[in-house]
Design goal:
single chain, about 120 residues, alpha+beta, Rossmann fold, two-stranded parallel ribbon, two-stranded antiparallel sheet, about 30% helix, about 15% strand, globular, disordered C terminus
């Protein structure tokens, strides 16, 4: 679909572009990128501008693996983002997706897919 590499796109995805559909996203969205990433700040900035309510964190010392290159900052950004999400909205989204929460003991939670849905682990 892509081609011989992500840098030489000649396959069926060559002209695939859903940029104009980013405005349809209604889910809380966190964009994370690195200053030295192949997805440059210019590219991620355009995604940010077109995604309603999206939050964007640019990691100045990172490339594509900010979770490895700046782990403390990455975890802080994700935690801060998750703190902004209303838990009742998440429950409603889970319900619409057919997911149910199952206790896995000692304060952990697991979301299980509806019966009959393949497990992609």
């Amino acid at each position: 679909m892509n081609g011989p590499s992500e840098f030489h796109v000649i396959g069926s995805l060559k002209d695939w572009d859903i940029t104009d559909r980013l405005a349809e996203i209604t889910t809380p969205t966190l964009l994370v990128s690195g200053r030295h990433d192949e997805a440059t700040p210019l590219i991620v900035g355009q995604i940010h501008e077109r995604t309603p309510g999206a939050q964007w964190v640019l990691f100045e010392e990172s490339s594509h693996m900010r979770h490895v290159e700046e782990p403390d900052g990455f975890l802080a950004a994700v935690e801060a983002f998750l703190a902004t999400i209303d838990p009742s909205q998440l429950s409603a989204r889970r319900s619409r997706a057919g997911l149910r929460e199952v206790s896995a003991g000692a304060g952990t939670r697991t979301l299980t897919p509806p019966t009959g849905t393949p497990d992609f682990k």
